[in-house]
């Protein structure tokens, strides 16, 4: 695992932050105010999460008048979805299933 | 490899399993057990036997047994044919079992030959859902 992977995973480890990022992926560009309305935390907290996401390259911001618009940067995820990463995840999941099966099997 | 359009990649995943090699071998080679943890299949533990693995998503993998050494090594090809060459996958999966004091050390290596970049970008969309689904498991591996 590279440092870049670590940063991405750690950034997305926080459920609130992940929720904000998913919302930007799903619904496109949003202001802090619009994101706060659904995040269930205060506006300063949302701003702080957006700052962390921006540092990891997962969101970019655009200033327009007094508003700042945030959008998801899906390209930042490319290192995570390449073949090796996805296959490693695949085998980890299958090995979980395998252990479950072995626990259920007779000797 | 002489082609610059393809890259050889290898994935290794290892795990200590609290069960003896004999039992693990059954799970790796008996079709009804393989189905429970891997995919539907018509596997036979015979070198040269061709079989399919059928995923829940409807994908079918073309496989051929390369090596069978009971309770030690199992190897088969793991190919996915797609009309878009960029999504084709030709790979070899090798399971290696090593007895330990508490059970078995299981190692799987998947070595693939893959035109890389286009898949990585295409996969950014296809892989999105599975990425989020696997995130928690991946996070556990970080620490």
From TrEMBL, chain B:
Residues 19-140 form the Activator of Hsp90 ATPase homologue 1/2-like C-terminal domain. SUPFAM superfamilies: Bet v1-like. It comes from the Bacteria. Pfam families: AHSA1. Belongs to the AHA1 family. This is Uncharacterized protein YndB with AHSA1/START domain.
